[in-house]
Amino acid sequence: MKSQTVSINDDDAFITLLSVETNEPFHVDLLHFRLVMGTLAIDNEDLDSDIYLALGLKRLGKGAIGTPRILTLLSSLLEKSVQKNEMQIETVSAKVNIAIFHGLRVPTISIRQYIDRIFKYARCSPSCFLVAYIYLDRFGQQTDVLLTSRNVHRLLITSVMVAAKFIDDTYFNNAYYARVGGISTAELNRLEMKFLLSLDFRLQVSINTFQRYCLQLQKEGNQVERPIRACGIKESWPSKSDTQCAPTIAR
Hints:
It holds the Pfam family Cyclin. The protein is α+β, with helices and mostly antiparallel strands. The chain has ten helices and four strands, in the order E-E-E-H-H-H-E-H-H-H-H-H-H-H.
């Protein structure tokens, strides 16, 4: 790797590297850095790959603004999955939920708003959302549970929290995540344990798996890019001074 470590910003969960060739700093998500450093087969081209930049897992400078693109793509993918599953449920007898994750009512907050809220207040690294999606996929394979509008919010807050604990250097406790997610601490504790047991505690994500899911999200992005731009939504990174966390609902 033709770069050397300069500093680590725990607030953003990004590591700053200094290019030996250009002497210019660039920023990489801590998870991606750990994966690269722990895999001998990864070279500098992988570290500088456009896909990580496109998904918001890598930034070119501290002045970069905007919500990581991975949040938009993930919300779009989950929304499509929920719509497809609920259409399937209407026509066939399908196993749709594990009772503990199934809410009594559909939350009024959308998947996109919920993901943005988690990112804003939990301040976990963008890679947490990709790893959380990998966990959700594993959860579905292990349990045959389908994502629906009644369980997706609980599964999201649980999977992101578990991912943050596993890959980030710093993270908030369950009580804080419960407040962000709009559920009680006791309930989130139960959700976390059920989620981990369903995954058989398999939380490790290989570099090949990480890259495969990145490509999947990038492919999704190519399909939704025009509609997103047409909306004209102006996005920005959460302010570090914005520490207030008002309760939401996931009931």
